[in-house]
Design brief:
This protein is of the alpha+beta class. The chain contains four helices and 21 strands.
Length: 258
């Protein structure tokens, strides 16, 4: 009877020690702390061990089973780089020996990308006013009959536009009820395009874009072919030169010589 009582007390003691050890293991901490916001294009998150020698495991899965269950938990070794916009939650646990700490998280740490402003000008025979200008990461928008824009802006009376984007891409000018050629106040009824790295959308840039998209020509080769076909000077860039501005500049130069 005494031996049974002694064995029972030992088991209770071990259970209590194990429970207390689990509670005594300090959880890891995060840098930056929970709720951090940044406008940078990426964010580096560090998870710090509470005691030297403790192992840290983390997961992005909010529904992952508590460590060590499931395969979603990854051992932290260096740093976590977040380079996509939006909010992210990282759950982490510290393990000392074989005893894990409670799970902690850096909920609602967010990355908000800084969008670059791409400025340019759009024209038909004259400057295009009231037209939607889109930028696409790939050329799929060129063959879409409807707008699938990732970023968009609208041209003013002088054809100027500004589109917020995370990088360069294909430019698409889409006709609409308000989209008109300002020179004759006539509606623009067909879309116009420009290859990546362009700042000018025009019928000339559309020709160059078509050579890149449908003929598979490199952009520089497409520019050369376009210039040759239209007998344009070598300094003219289909996606970067404003033909109206260049024409007016040439007229002023001729007038000044007289």
């Amino acid at each position: 009877m005494c031996r049974s009582i002694s064995l029972f007390m030992v088991l209770v003691h071990l259970a209590l020690v194990s429970h207390n050890n689990a509670e005594d293991v300090l959880p890891p901490s995060f840098t930056p702390a929970s709720g951090h916001r940044t406008n940078d294009k990426s964010l580096v998150v560090l998870i710090h061990e509470p005691l030297e020698g403790a192992r840290i495991y983390y997961t992005f899965d909010k529904d992952a089973p508590t460590y060590p269950q499931g395969s979603q938990w990854v051992q932290f070794t260096d740093e976590i780089k977040i380079d996509h916009p939006g909010e992210v939650t990282i759950r982490a646990v510290a393990v000392t020996g074989e005893v894990p700490s409670r799970v902690v998280s850096n909920e609602s740490t967010a990355v908000y990308h800084v969008f670059d402003a791409l400025k340019g000008v759009a024209l038909g025979s004259g400057y295009a006013a009231g037209c939607s200008v889109e930028i696409h990461a790939d050329s799929e928008g060129l063959t879409s009959a409807q707008s699938t824009h990732e970023s968009a802006g609208e041209t003013d009376q002088d054809g100027n536009f500004e589109v917020l984007s995370q990088g360069t891409g294909w430019l698409v000018l889409r006709p609409g009820p308000r989209c008109r050629d300002h020179s004759g106040n006539v509606p623009i009824r067909v879309p116009l395009f420009a290859p990546p790295n362009s700042t000018v959308i025009s019928p000339i840039s559309t020709l160059a874009a078509g050579l890149v998209k449908f003929r598979g020509l490199p952009p520089r080769t497409a520019d050369d072919v376009t210039r040759q076909a239209l007998a344009l000077p070598l300094v003219f860039q289909p996606g970067g030169s404003d033909p109206i501005a260049l024409s007016l500049s040439a007229e002023h130069a001729l007038t000044g010589r007289r």
